[in-house]
Structures are given as structure tokens and as C-alpha cells.
Fold:
Amino acid sequence: MARTPSNMLALGTRAPGFTLPDTSSGNTYTLEELQGKKATLIMFICNHCPFVKHVNKALVSLANTYQQKGISFIAISSNDVENYPQDHPDKMKETAREEGYPFPYLYDESQEVARAYDAACTPDFFLFDSNLELVYRGQLDDSRPGNGIPVSGKDLETAMKNLLDGLPIPELQKPSIGCNIKWKETA
Structure:
């Protein structure tokens, strides 16, 4: 199990736009169509990564709570499905249904969106304010598979709460740790 940290995109960066298919609904969406009224959380995840599996229930719980408060949740998988067929869009649709994802699960076949966000691992979290400017990037919490720390979502949840309450976002933001994004081989 590779342990790859986030690249920590610069705070204040504007969210790169995209147009991607949602594996759950079959619809194609742009960032603007999915943008939240108060904030937008972009999550790079995948089906097979043990780090993502470890936090899936917390992601669903946070989404169920914070989507009602104006924060849009958007999950994106950018993995190479030729070499990692378990991350194929058909399997993404199954995972979204099995996990009860209350958010779109988009497929970034070209991997251009992951590159635009400088995403490095799954899970990798990017929280943008209502102007689509980056205010938080990093870990969900300190829990990792096998480290005995319960999944709480506290780091990401604190950033979302503070954003909604008009309070400063904590300056100490720890990188997420997870499986590396499975990049396609380039010729």
C-alpha cells in the first residue's frame, strides 16, 4: 500500500473548470453546474484504494450534513482503468450505489482534471469558497488504515464549519495520504 501525500496546491488558487461524465446518473456536468452556493468540495477518490475505503462512510456522512448547508460535494476518479479495471466507470457506478454516495462520482478519463488540480493521491480533498478560491486542501483527519485512530473527518469538517461561520480556516493543513493516482503511461 503506497503512501503518497497531497501536493498541497496553493491556497487562493481558483478551481479549474471541467466537464465530466457522472457514472451514477449518466449525465455530463460542468464545475459551474455542480458548484455549491457557499462552498464546493472536490474529492479525488477511486474504488479500490484502501485509504478511500477507510473513509467512505465519513464522506457520505459529511456530505449528508453539509450539502444541506450549501456545500457541494463532487467526487472524481482519474485512475487509469486499463491497468486498474476495478476503477472502471461501470464499477464506479456500483461503488456509488453500494456506498450510498449522495454526490456525483465523475470520471476523468483524460486525467486532465487531476493534473489541473495537482491531485496526487486518493483521497485528495480541495475545498473552495463561494468564489471557487481554494481555502483548504489536505487530509480528512489523522486516521489511516491500520493506525488505530478512529475516522472523525475533523480536519476537513473544521474547515467547512469555519468557512460557513465566517471564521478563519486553520492555517495548519496537513497533506492527505493515500494511494497514488494511477497515471496512464505516456509514449
